[in-house]
Write a structure and sequence with these properties.
InterPro entries: AAA+_ATPase, ABC_transporter-like_ATP-bd, ABC_transpr_LolD-like, CP_lyase_PhnL, P-loop_NTPase. By secondary structure, the protein is of the alpha/beta class. It has one domain (5-105, 155-233): Rossmann fold, CATH 3.40.50.300. Helices cover 33% and strands 27% of the residues. It has 7 helices and 10 strands. A 6-stranded mixed beta sheet has the order 6-7-8-3-9-10, sandwiched between helices. Strands 2-1-4-5 form a 4-stranded antiparallel beta sheet, covered by helices on one side. β9 and β10 (231-233) form a beta hairpin.
C-alpha cells in the first residue's frame, strides 16, 4: 500500500440533547499519509483539529467516511469500522496518542506507568526497567517523583510523563494533539529531540501544535482546517 493512512470523506457531528441541536464538527475530511511522514494540522480553536485525531484513534466514532490504516497485524483495516478488540490491540501495539491531559490508573506510579507501556510491546522486565529510567531522565522528571503517583504532579510534570509513556513504545503511527501546550522551552526541545529520533526510526506522525515555529521544521506537509469543512495542503 502506498499510504499508511488514507482518510476519505470523514464526517463527525455531536448532538446537544439539552438544546435539541446537532453540531457539525468536521465534514468531508480527506487526507493521505505515507509511511514515515510527519503531517501537521493547523487551524483555530474549535475548527475540528482534535476531532480528526480522535476519530483516527477511535475515541470518537465517525458518522461517515473511511479511515484506512495499513496495520502490521491486520493488514488494511478501516479504523471507523474496526471492532473494539481490534482497536484495543492497535492502541497497545501500533497507534500512539499524546494529548495535553494525562489519563492514568489510580495508585500507579510514574515509573510503573512507563514500564507497563514498554512491557506491552513485548520487552522483558529488565530491559523495560532500564528504558523506563532512560525516558524519565530524558524528560528531566525529578527522580524523587518516579515512584510517586501522577495525581500529585504539576500540569507540566503530568504532560512530560504522558509524552514519555506514549513515545517510549515507538508506535508505527503517533498522533500528537497539542502535546507541548503547557511546556517551557527547554521541555519542548526535549520533545522535539525525541520526535526527530522517532522520525529517523520510521514512525509516521500526525501532529497539532499551537507553536507553529516548533512544528515548522518537523513537518513534511502541513494542512489547514477551517470550520471543520475543508482540509487543504498549504505546502
Amino acid at each position: 500500500m502506498e499510504y499508511i493512512l488514507n482518510i476519505q470523506g470523514l464526517d463527525k457531528s455531536f448532538t446537544l440533547h439539552n438544546l435539541g441541536k446537532k453540531i457539525r464538527a468536521v465534514s468531508g475530511i480527506s487526507i493521505q499519509v505515507r509511511a514515515g511522514e510527519f503531517v501537521g494540522i493547523t487551524g483555530k480553536s474549535g475548527s475540528g483539529k482534535s476531532t480528526v485525531l480522535k476519530c483516527m484513534y477511535r475515541t470518537y466514532l465517525p458518522d461517515r467516511g473511511e479511515i484506512l490504516y495499513d496495520s502490521k497485524k491486520f493488514g488494511l483495516i478501516d479504523l471507523a469500522a474496526a471492532t473494539e478488540r481490534e482497536m484495543i490491540y492497535l492502541r497497545k501495539h501500533e497507534i500512539g496518542y499524546v494529548s495535553q491531559f494525562l489519563n492514568a490508573m489510580p495508585r500507579t506510579t510514574a515509573r510503573e506507568l512507563v514500564k507497563q507501556a514498554i512491557e506491552e510491546m513485548g520487552t522483558d522486565e529488565a530491559s523495560a526497567a532500564i528504558q523506563t529510567e532512560e525516558i524519565l531522565a530524558h524528560f528531566e522528571l525529578d527522580r524523587e517523583l518516579w515512584d510517586s503517583y501522577p495525581a500529585t504532579f504539576s500540569g507540566g510534570e503530568k504532560l512530560r510523563l504522558n509524552i514519555a509513556r506514549a513515545m517510549v513504545k515507538r508506535p508505527r503511527l503517533l498522533l500528537l494533539d497539542e502535546p507541548t501546550a503547557s511546556l517551557d522551552q527547554a521541555s519542548k526541545m526535549k520533545v522535539k529531540e525525541l520526535i526527530q529520533q522517532l522520525m529517523n526510526e520510521g514512525t509516521t506522525m500526525i501532529g497539532i501544535f499551537h507553536d507553529l515555529e516548533f512544528m515548522q521544521d518537523l513537518c513534511d506537509r502541513e494542512y489547514s482546517i477551517h470550520e471543520g469543512s475543508f482540509l487543504a495542503s498549504v505546502n
